[in-house]
Recover the amino acids of this structure.
């Protein structure tokens, strides 16, 4: 069947690439020459090309059809935001909860210093340092990444809340692909710190760190140490930090989501301050 | 912020996603459900996508995985024709209306999902062989031989359809 007239051997792979119109120059010419000498194969290849073109033709109308509104990105995003707000209001996606006496415009004003790169309060830096150090220590831990696993979530949160002196709920970060693994208690000066650890489908880990800290409220502080990025802030005597192997742009929406939990809960009812 | 350019990047790709989804499920509303799920998932994991990865290939991967998990579940509940149907004529195999030689799209339904997806991703969506391999979770080396086999099978399905004319075409399983 294959004569000795074909100078360069043509393989099936190349015939497939020919069917897809992906050959160029010399190889295209070589295949054409080969097919001219092998009518049976040429017929088969022509049929495959024809079927490929027909399939594209049959689906063309689907491709040019206008995209229905429910698939517009703006609408999908709006629906997502709506779900988010409802969840926040219902406190289902509960964040780290404790009493704050702030208004609804608080969040916007708080982000302001971030843009102007104002010098962060030293206390925020200490929280960020503590969080980053704890992250470095335990994120690489394979055997015992957490002290109490997510299977005992209620016990974990009760225990950490008690030691911390504040009611603690695990932020729901599933919207970002992160799931709670568990948590542990850590020393933080003379007091205690709580670390909640999360991971995503690819095994990347993220921690939420909470401890007592001096100060009422500060702006977000961003800190990058190697691959690990941290956003930290202080609120009503407690410091918070979110740390992950991520860059600033990836981490900011997560830190905001953790933070926004206060806003959602706050907007839901009167506060005691 | 990253999320704001998501729309600008995703929107031009939606027609192709709808086309692929429709080719898989062959139902307009179900196809758009699948695309909607795909877009929602992509937005929820927007920052997890690899910066150097091809967005189109990533979206097709999400869509296909959603399709497979949804339809596998359905299949397990037993409405789909199986190998046994073809092996045992007495069990009233799933029958199709006559297959026109022109109707490549209908013929595609007789292929296993992997071959079908391969023909769609390469032949219709113009994805590179490498991207198609990644989307289907195949080693690069096997993509070409699978493609060849898929086309061979499609040809034989269409030939059979032509020969049997207005009679019926049995689900072919080799």
């Amino acid at each position: 069947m294959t004569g000795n007239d074909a100078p360069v051997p043509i393989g099936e792979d190349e015939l497939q690439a020919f069917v897809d119109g992906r050959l160029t120059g010399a190889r295209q010419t070589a295949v054409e020459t080969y097919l001219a000498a092998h009518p049976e194969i040429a017929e088969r290849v022509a049929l495959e090309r024809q079927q490929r073109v027909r399939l594209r033709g049959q689906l063309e109308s689907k491709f040019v059809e206008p995209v229905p509104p429910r698939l517009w990105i703006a609408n999908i995003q709006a629906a997502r935001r709506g779900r988010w707000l409802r969840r926040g209001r219902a406190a289902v996606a509960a964040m780290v909860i404790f009493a704050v006496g702030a208004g609804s415009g608080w969040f916007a004003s708080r982000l302001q210093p971030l843009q102007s790169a104002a010098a962060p309060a030293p206390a925020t830096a200490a929280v960020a340092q503590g969080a980053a150090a704890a992250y470095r220590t335990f994120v690489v831990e394979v055997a015992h990444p957490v002290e109490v696993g997510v299977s005992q979530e209620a016990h974990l949160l009760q225990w950490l809340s008690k030691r911390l002196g504040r009611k603690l709920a695990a932020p729901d970060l599933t919207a970002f692909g992160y799931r709670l693994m568990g948590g542990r208690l850590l020393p933080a000066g003379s007091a205690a710190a709580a670390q909640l650890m999360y991971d995503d489908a690819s095994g990347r880990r993220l921690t939420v760190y909470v401890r007592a800290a001096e100060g009422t409220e500060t702006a977000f502080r961003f800190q990058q140490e190697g691959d690990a990025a941290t956003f930290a802030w202080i609120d009503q005597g407690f410091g918070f930090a979110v740390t992950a192997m991520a860059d600033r742009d990836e981490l900011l929406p997560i830190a905001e989501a953790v933070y926004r939990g206060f806003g959602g809960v706050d907007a839901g009812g009167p506060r005691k301050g | 912020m990253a999320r704001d350019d998501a729309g600008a990047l995703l929107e031009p790709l939606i027609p192709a996603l709808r086309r692929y989804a429709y080719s898989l499920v062959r139902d307009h509303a179900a196809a758009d459900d699948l695309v909607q799920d795909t877009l929602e998932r992509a937005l929820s994991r927007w920052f997890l996508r690899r910066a150097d990865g091809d967005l189109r290939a990533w979206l097709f991967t999400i869509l296909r995985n959603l399709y497979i998990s949804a339809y596998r579940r359905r299949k397990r509940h037993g409405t789909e024709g199986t190998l046994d149907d073809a092996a045992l004529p007495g069990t009233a195999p799933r029958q199709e209306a006559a297959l026109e030689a022109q109707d490549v799209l209908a013929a595609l339904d007789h292929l296993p999902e992997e071959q079908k997806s391969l023909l769609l991703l390469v032949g219709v969506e113009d994805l590179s062989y490498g991207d198609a391999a990644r989307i289907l979770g195949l080693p690069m080396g096997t993509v070409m031989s699978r493609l060849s086999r898929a086309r061979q099978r499609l040809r034989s399905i269409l030939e059979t359809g032509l020969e049997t004319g207005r009679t019926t075409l049995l689900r072919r399983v080799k």
